[in-house]
């Protein structure tokens, strides 16, 4: 337990000590909220769908989370390049503990980032419908953070340097985000695309978050919860296995 | 304590370690000497579970690093040749992280961290971020960290590289003390041959991935008819300057270059 704690604490200290990164990564969600929120707002309203900021808010919170989460996971590459990874790898701790410690650390950072985006959304005009459901929203924030930190980490165990990062950005993070229902309602997509989108864990994350914050979960909160929990466990399991194969 | 039989490591074309065998007994201070690129670090990586061998057998404290990684990892401590500190943490936090990872009980941990940071003269800098340290300070911290837990076997890969004689003496007397009091087996590499002559009771010399000779420093001197171990070393390995073998990092760069061709 203390091993997982010290791994977690390290990630948090690093996050806290690079506050410029913390603030910098809030710029993108803010831009999306302002540009998309106010830009598409009137059209959305005219289409009879109601307030677009209310729809967009949970999507942008999810966006803030996944960018931070995947990046926290991928930070493992820096540990490899700066040599610190060796220190962890030779230690007599199970690879599962390493994976859990790192994932919890990165996920905590991502969840904090998600909460900050939530406050930014409040400023822009987003209003959660029920305070009673806020703990549930927090559960989804944490689950999304876990899934994507674990994903970033398990990818990083297979990469030797940052060169693959643009590929990951363009062919993984962007599709995950745009095909998650974060920006647009799901009902507009053709059935085959929608079927494909259902393979995207973030779809369930956005849906659950939207369900908890403004009601109207498309797939059902229980489904969302179950899918995210299972996927995060699967990613952690795969990540632990990959960790056991890392060579320096 | 360490048993190596016909160990081989091949990277695509290069054979870094070419069929070596040796034994390190409990309580030995074993110097593993060789010119740059001889295969020392590669061997240490295989002994410490960081790299899997292409062939041959290794037993570390009776366990195989390939299949019983956990048991092997419980048996040793290591000071790496290149940096393995977290720059974004303070000196003290780096020490604490290591102590917790190796399950050193809190009271002992705190006491050893203080003692060791004082030995390497970093106690008054303990709350500074490592990224503000000079190369020598990082090296000293690295060694201090490796000594927080007291393993059965201690691997030291060029531990004293770039340190002044005073610090080297302090560190070696601490290590010798550990070796005598807790009969910790020490396996180390160094380019300071006189250091090996002074502290080691067993020496193996490796060159081009093969072990040329092994024995006590006295035996090697007698064998070559030289007065010092350094002269014996030069007589055995010749005077040609070696190119550095690609380490993990360089292998990565090489691979990348090939990939981008």
From TrEMBL, chain A:
GO terms for molecular function: ABC-type transporter activity. Residues 20-246 form the ABC transmembrane type-2 domain. The keyword Transport applies. It is a multi-pass membrane protein. InterPro entries: ABC2_TM, ABC2_TM_bact-type, ABC_2_transport, Nod_factor_ABC_transporter. The chain crosses the membrane at residues 21-43, 55-78, 99-126, 132-155, 167-186, 225-243. Belongs to the ABC-2 integral membrane protein family. This is Transport permease protein.
Automatic annotation (TrEMBL), chain B:
GO terms for biological process: daunorubicin transport; doxorubicin transport. It is found in: Cell membrane. It comes from the Bacteria. One of its GO terms (cellular component) is plasma membrane. One of its GO terms (molecular function) is ATP hydrolysis activity. Residues 2-233 form the ABC transporter domain. SUPFAM superfamilies: P-loop containing nucleoside triphosphate hydrolases. This is Multidrug ABC transporter ATP-binding protein. It comes from Candidatus Buchananbacteria bacterium RIFCSPLOWO2_01_FULL_45_31.
